[in-house]
Write a structure and sequence with these properties.
Largest sheet: 7 strands, parallel
Helix content: 40-55%
Number of strands: 7
CATH topology of the largest domain: TIM Barrel
CATH architecture of the largest domain: Alpha-Beta Barrel
Number of helices: 14
Oligomer: single chain
CATH superfamily of the largest domain: Metal-dependent hydrolases
Strand order of the largest sheet: 1-2-3-4-5-6-7
Number of domains: 2
Distance between the termini: 49 Å
Order of helices and strands: HHHHHHEHEHEHEHEHEHEHH
Radius of gyration: 21 Å
Length: about 325
């Protein structure tokens, strides 16, 4: 192991465990700071100490790695936060991920690091779905910024991997979508999610969701209840709506219900997955990753889907890219 790999692995493990973004970003910044340095340069401790991006913790990791040791902090993270088997055979059937974020909105890292991590996991495809304009706290993309991002996406495709253009578009109060119709039509994947007024009364919330999934541009209904069951943001109860009506609309329009893999969400709840199954819905097991290390959270979503008895053939993220594109072509 070299210092760059050690620092990067620590960042990845911190991201997977949804630790403070500042901690993971510090280790990624240190990895960037030493990338390309020779061993001689790395052993110049005085110069290394002065290098921007190197702090006490990251300096210690570099020194331990140069001494031929597994850094103590990395060993600790591997033991406590490493990727343990989650017990799902379904995970091996997943070919990609339709919900991820970069630093163009509220993700931690540039697009290229998300792509590198997706490739390392063996993904055939990854949809880049940064937020839409109304979510200002997440630096949602204006039409102009989204058009700029679209010019970059093709450059990340090749060698058996495809980066899909996309958006996580906000569902407005009336069920409309928070982005221009012509732009939504250009995207490979549109994930529609509610991020505001989560405590809306059940009847208008039902209308809101049904209207959104009836829009011909929508492919995936993201984290449908908006609940939080654990984590640093605390807990949040699920939105209330008529699930039979919402999932019937999803099935009628070929919209996939997202099984969000983030442990703090576990969304939809098990009882809603059962209703969506009975309604004949498709599903998408997605990571909702905001950092490279979070792409591997698919383990959790796959385990939940398997326990719920969701057949692999009804999970669009098990499909090869050609079949996935045939499905999204229904909206043209």
């Amino acid at each position: 192991m070299n210092p760059f790999d050690a620092l990067s692995e620590i960042a990845t493990l911190l991201e997977r465990e949804r630790a403070s973004r500042y901690r993971s970003k510090a280790f990624r910044a240190a990895a960037t700071a030493i990338e390309g340095l020779s061993e001689t340069q790395l052993r110049d401790t005085a110069a290394l100490r002065r290098r921007k991006g190197i702090g006490d913790s990251t300096f210690a990791v570099i020194q331990e790695t140069l001494a031929g040791e597994v850094p103590a902090y990395l060993a600790q993270l591997r033991e406590s936060a490493g990727v343990a088997p989650v017990g799902s055979s379904l995970r091996a059937q997943l070919r990609g991920d339709l919900h991820s974020h970069s630093d163009w909105s509220d993700g931690y890292t540039p697009i290229e690091l998300m792509v590198d991590a997706a490739r390392a996991l063996g993904h055939e495809y990854l949809a880049l779905t940064d937020h839409s304009p109304r979510l200002r706290v997440a630096r949602g993309l204006s039409p102009e910024r989204l058009r700029e991002q679209l010019t970059l996406v093709p450059g990340f495709t090749g060698d058996g991997f495809t980066l899909l253009s996309g958006i996580e578009v906000d569902i407005l109060d009336d069920g409309g979508l928070d982005q221009q119709e012509d732009l939504l039509a250009e995207l490979d994947i549109v994930v529609a999610s509610v991020h505001s007024k989560l405590r809306m009364e059940p009847r208008p919330m039902t209308r809101r969701l049904v209207t959104a999934v009836s829009n011909r541009h929508v492919d995936v209904l993201g984290h449908v209840t908006g609940r939080l069951v654990e984590g640093s943001r605390g807990t949040r109860p699920p939105s209330q709506f008529d699930p039979a009506a919402v999932f019937a609309a999803c099935a009628a329009h070929g919209v996939a219900v997202e099984i969000n893999s983030r442990p703090e969400r576990q969304d939809p709840p098990d009882e809603l997955i059962a209703i969506a199954l009975d309604a004949g819905c498709l599903f998408a097991i997605d990571s909702d990753a905001h950092a490279p290390g979070q792409l591997s959270l698919l383990d959790h979503g796959a385990a939940r889907a398997e326990r719920a008895g969701v057949p692999a053939e009804r999970i669009v993220t098990t499909w090869p890219l050609k079949q996935l594109r045939e499905w999204t072509a229904r909206r043209t």
